[in-house]
Amino acid sequence: MDRKEKGSNFMQQAAILAAASIISRFIGFLYRIPLTDILGDLGNGYYSQGYYIYTFFLIFSSAGLPAAISKMVSTRATVKQYRDAHRVFEVSLIIGGALGLFCSLLLSFGARAFAGLINTPEAAYTMLTLSPTIFIVTIMSSYRGYFQGLKNSVPTAVSQLVEQIVNAVFTVALAWQFSKTSIAAAAAGGTAGTGIGAFAGLAIIIVIYNMAKPKIIRRVKLDRNREDYESDFSIVSELIKTAVPIIIGTAVFSLTNIIDIFMVKNILINSGYTPVQADELYGQLSGKYYVITTLPVTISTSLATAALPSIASSFKLRDLAAVHKKTNSAMRIAMILTIPAAVGIGILGTPILELLFPKHSGGGVLLQVGSISILFLALTQISTGMLQGIGRVKVPAFAALCGALLKIPLNYIFISIHELNVTGSVISTIFCYFLAAAIDVYFLIKYTNVKLDFATILIKPMAAAAVMGVACYTFYHSSIFLTENNTISVIISILISIFAYFTMLLLLRGLQRDDIIELPFGSKICYVLEQINML
């Protein structure tokens, strides 16, 4: 490993992935505004039902690949076994490609049958247009996992950005074009943009790989002084053992979404809603609640992904002090960013929807009630990354299964209450993520003996967010009273809330120097804060 790569550390990789993910998610969030304007809640219902079934197949083909490949490559690169590390990539490319092709064909030929099973024939078009994307994403996952295992997050970041930009353009354009035919056709046109974007992302990362290939091959050749190399069989065996628990853990949550498709619609109809009303309410749940509440968790997901190779390397080298430091740092940054997001979305749920979707603004109560799920989902994501990094990949799968098993009966209880309708699904989701997060964090502490600094991870961010919440509520209602303009009031409230939160966090010493130093111009920021005695 050369000097540049040695200088690459956990927080730098996290920052790269987080920045790319934030920008990508922001682009994805922005295009959902005109998309919802085109599709409405009913079209969002068709779009999401097909998309979730596609996601389920995608998980089985590629969900475990980036994390598994990243971990396997990282552990080999750490001890300079570059030939074996590259062979991991080559083998995973073949295995993943074959599995991705199989799942693509299965979804393509079974689209109408799956749409019939969920009692939404209109979703078949969405599944058909999405089916080739599975193969494309699976191939791309192998490249991303390989580069992340080498502690180089730039290729993943660049491919994510290209993928999302192309996706946004074609999703809106095709949805608008096909809306002239029908809502179902518009939903299918929108999902076609996903495949086109994925193809663009794959093309970019292949170009990056080919540019880096001479250096990669040079390393591989330098590693040929060893006589013993891993067999393809041992690599496949380890890949399966590492990826399968990750796939199972991810699939359980995806399965819960698919069960929601069956349960939400059927229970709503039994409660007196018409099929069209049920699809519209499901469209609010999937097209607004899930889209908005998962946006802040993107940062946590990025941290978890970036943490994998770094944690794996430190754990392999028995550097437990580094494992503990990185775990606390990742947890702290994740909570510092997601806790205020949860509070802000909870307070401004309805005004945010009125700002973003003026033509289809229903569903604010889903955000108000379900904002707390942001915190628990973030904890689940980041602790999952830590556990995978230390080789305890079965724990997140077990935690996810427990959460899903709890959610299913709670769906029956809460959705059946006519006044709650889809809000019942949101409530059951909160319990689901809470249980999964509790299990993950418990076993993380047990297996690493890490002493989590709950003061800086939870207590101080919560205290600062409480003050922020009061400021947000007060300024929004004062502004709406004076201006009677929702857009101005929301924007002012958000800006004031950000200022209030970080001011309180600094006063409470909730941010540490090591966290800030990794930010752009971090050294200068630290200097200024130290001069005013706030760090």
**Which geometry do the CA atoms define?**
globular
User: What is the first-to-last residue Cα distance?
Assistant: 35 Å
Main beta-sheet annotation: none
Please compute the radius of gyration using only Cα atoms. 23 Å
**Number of E-type strands:** 0
Strand content: under 5%
Number of domains: 2
* Mean pLDDT across residues: 86
The residue fraction in helices comes out at over 70%
Order of helices and strands: HHHHHHHHHHHHHHHHHHH
Count of runs of 4 or more consecutive helical residues: 19
SSE-based structural type: mainly alpha
Low-confidence stretches: 1-8
Overview features:
single chain, about 525 residues, mainly alpha, 2 domains, globular
How does this model look, in words?
It is a single chain. By secondary structure, the chain is mainly α. It has 2 domains: 3-452, no CATH class; 453-535, no CATH class. Helix content is 85%, strand content 0%. It contains 19 helices and no strands. The longest helix is centred in the N-terminal third of the chain and has 54 residues, at 10-63.
Q: How is this structure best summarized?
A:
By secondary structure, this protein is mainly alpha-helical.
